């Protein structure tokens, strides 16, 4: 007899995105992304961090202050990293993200051919950048939905 308590695809791929977020060195916002093609194969993974070769000991993780003294001038978002790390054409694929995409990432998602966004949290629904993302997704016919079933209590233990 087969088990019935296995996790569904959405929960599985969101788990991969969530685990990826644990690689981020940002102390206030860890975001992960996982791109999946139409055959349920993972084709890209990313998390928010500085570009390759840019030391996180030199650049700032601060949220406030002069623009050049904050992380916002330098961080590559999880969605962008997942797209850049992809191993194939993304046309018709879907992306799982732990945080609803900003407008800049929405543009990249649309341009890459991703057709569905599944997200865990929408922490900033009233910000203009989030409203712009939703407007762009609607115009480009990219579907987006919140994953309500995912259980954040899943723990990841390090192998010693």
Please provide a written account of the structure:
By secondary structure, the protein is an alpha/beta fold. 27% of the residues lie in helices and 17% in strands. It contains four helices and five strands. The protein has a five-stranded mixed beta sheet, sandwiched between helices. A hairpin with a 5-residue loop joins strand 1 and strand 2 (42-47). Helix 3 packs parallel to helix 4. The longest helix has 13 residues, at 9-21. It is globular. The model is unreliable at 153-160 (pLDDT under 50).
Describe the SSE topology:
Blueprint lengths: L8 H13 L10 E5 L5 E6 L30 H7 L9 E6 L3 H10 L3 E6 L6 H13 L2 E4 L14
Parallel strand pairs: 3-4, 4-5
Antiparallel strand pairs: 1-2, 1-3
- Low-confidence stretches are 153-160
**What string, H for helix and E for strand, traces the elements in order?**
HEEHEHEHE
Whole-number average pLDDT? 92
Instruction: Estimate the global geometry from the Cα principal axes.
Output: globular
- Widest beta sheet: strand line-up: 2-1-3-4-5
Main sheet? 5 strands, mixed
Strand fraction: 15-25%
Q: Approximately how much helix is present in the residues?
A: 25-40%
Global structural class: alpha/beta
What is the tally of beta strands? 5
What's the helix count? 4
Give Rg in angstroms.
16 Å
Cα separation of the termini: 34 Å
């Amino acid at each position: 007899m087969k088990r019935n308590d296995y996790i569904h695809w959405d929960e599985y791929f969101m788990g991969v995105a969530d685990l990826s977020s644990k690689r981020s060195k940002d102390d206030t916002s860890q975001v992960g992304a996982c791109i999946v093609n139409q055959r349920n194969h993972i084709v890209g993974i990313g998390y928010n961090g500085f570009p390759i070769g840019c030391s996180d000991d030199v650049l700032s993780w601060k949220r406030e202050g002069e623009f050049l003294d904050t992380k916002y001038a330098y961080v590559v978002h999880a969605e962008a990293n997942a797209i850049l790390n992809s191993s194939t054409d993304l046309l018709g694929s879907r992306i799982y993200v732990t945080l609803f995409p900003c407008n800049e990432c929405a543009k990249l998602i649309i341009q890459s051919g991703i057709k569905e966004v599944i997200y865990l949290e929408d922490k900033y629904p009233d910000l203009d950048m989030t409203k712009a993302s939703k407007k762009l997704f609607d115009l480009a016919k990219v579907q987006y939905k919140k994953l309500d079933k995912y259980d954040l209590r899943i723990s990841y233990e390090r192998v010693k």
